[in-house]
Amino acid sequence: MGTARGVDPFAESEDQSALRQLARETAQREVAPDSRSRDESGEAPLTVAKALAAADLLRVTVPEEYGGLGYGDVEASIVLEEVARVDVSSAIWCQLTFNGPPRGIQHLGSERLKQQWLPSVADGDALLSIGITEPDAGSAVHQMRTSLTKHGSGWRLNGYKNFSTLGHVAQGILVWCRWPGGSGAKGIGAVVIPTDRQGVSITGVHAGMGIHSATEAEVAFDDVEVTEDDVLIAGDPHNTDAFKVLLGHLNHERCGNASMCVGAAQGAFEYAISHLNDRIIDGQPLADRQGLQWKLADMAIELESARMHLRRAVHLAGVAGTPPPLETAMAKAAANRAAKFVCDESIQLLGGYGYSREYPLERAYRDIRGLCIGAGTIEAQLNYVGSNVARGRSSSSPGWVPQNFG
Ligand SMILES: Cc1cc2nc3c(=O)[nH]c(=O)nc-3n(C[C@H](O)[C@H](O)[C@H](O)COP(=O)(O)OP(=O)(O)OC[C@H]3O[C@@H](n4cnc5c(N)ncnc54)[C@H](O)[C@@H]3O)c2cc1C
């Protein structure tokens, strides 16, 4: 059999391999041990965040001038994979730090907003949550009602946001809201509000199927004072420009979501393989059964396919860019589906132990289930991919060029 002589286009650099190693060791040492008890108690991963910060792992995407390492989406993806490999809830903290509001502030924010938030999120002293979804505006986000009304030289913010991950723990929240006079997608922009400001209140915390220690909050805004200093990007009631910029930024979050799915599935896959090798039935390890090897083969193929979609999307972002939308939508859908399949089959391969709370697989399955809904559902990704390919649009990567079938 000939050996491969080509070059892996997604091979990690020395720095990236070292970052993966650091993230793996830190996750194994600091994240894994209490992950089950946090899942049982619902305690937020505050101690974990401190440990990740101490290992410099929360600095990954923050620019160097604000105390970060200045890396891009590839490195964010590496850390997210490794932390989610042992605990998705803890990876969510990294996700909010790498691909949530700080990324928006870094690209769009004023110097004042950058100074206010970026050094403290890099140090693990602050967390920013995301306020986009509302009861009547989930997938149809342009139906949002949360709005600014003019008040003196600034505004007053009124509205209600649902499913804001770790909103009850965060020091600040990035709120998508409507500027005066806007309707539909026109006039939607975003502000960043400290959660201790008068008029901001946590009205509930969801009890979800999974992600128990990084659950979602309901946040109300009651006549909250907003000044020019709080504005991330202003909505113009005459156009959808700001809304489009904000939507584009979600591609970071979607790649982060896909990274957590790949990482969690990888962890479940490794656990199942180890179990099959250890479990002896009729004098033979289960891993020797061809029927089970075929399952492993299908799992490996699904997982690697999703990983390649993801790698392509994050590599296309470059160091300072944003992952392109079509590749990102494909990566998120592929990773969500692969994680569902791989975690489900891993449970099956462990039999009763897979189903038991004493083993980590049922937790991984419950956790990734939420990732298939957050950051845009699988169906929302399929809508985007389908509507684009139906119009003959194709990926921007050189690997997939339009064909002329005429
Ligand atoms: C774990 C988790 C974390 C989250 N974190 C945050 C957060 O931090 N901040 C935040 O703002 N939000 C967050 N969300 C909310 C999330 O973004 C929304 O739940 C999601 O966008 C779907 O909106 P919805 O729940 O209103 O469902 P709906 O939009 O009502 O959708 C219901 C179903 O219909 C499908 N559907 C809807 N429209 C279409 C269509 N046009 N074509 C085909 N199918 C369609 C959907 O795919 C879904 O299956 C989180 C959700 C979860 C589960």
Explain this structure to me?
With 406 residues, the protein is α+β, with helices and mostly antiparallel strands. The chain folds into three domains: 112 residues, Orthogonal Bundle (Butyryl-Coa Dehydrogenase, subunit A, domain 1), CATH 1.10.540.10; 110 residues, Butyryl-CoA Dehydrogenase, subunit A, domain 2, CATH 2.40.110; 149 residues, Up-down Bundle (Butyryl-CoA Dehydrogenase, subunit A, domain 3), CATH 1.20.140. It has 13 helices and ten strands. The strands form three sheets. The protein has a four-stranded mixed β-sheet with strand order 1-4-5-8. A four-stranded antiparallel β-sheet has the order 2-3-7-6, with no helix packed on it. Strands 9-10 form a two-stranded antiparallel sheet. Helix 4 runs antiparallel to helix 5, helix 10 packs antiparallel against helix 12 and helix 10 packs across helix 13. The two termini are 40 Å apart. The relative contact order is 0.11. Bound molecules: flavin-adenine dinucleotide (FAD). The site of flavin-adenine dinucleotide has 20 residues, from strand 1, strand 3 and helix 13.
Q: What does the secondary structure layout of this molecule look like, with pairings?
A:
Blueprint (H helix, E strand, L loop, with lengths): L13 H18 L3 H7 L4 H9 L18 H14 L1 H12 L1 H8 L2 H12 L5 E4 L15 E5 L2 E12 L6 E7 L9 E7 L5 E6 L10 E11 L4 E3 L7 H38 L1 E2 L2 E2 L4 H28 L7 H25 L2 H4 L5 H11 L6 H13 L16
Parallel strand pairs: 1-4
Antiparallel strand pairs: 2-3, 3-7, 4-5, 5-8, 6-7, 9-10
Helix pairs in contact: 1-4, 4-5, 4-8, 5-6, 5-8, 8-9, 8-10, 8-12, 9-10, 10-12, 10-13
Bound molecules: flavin-adenine dinucleotide (FAD).
The site of flavin-adenine dinucleotide has 20 residues, from strand 1, strand 3 and helix 13.
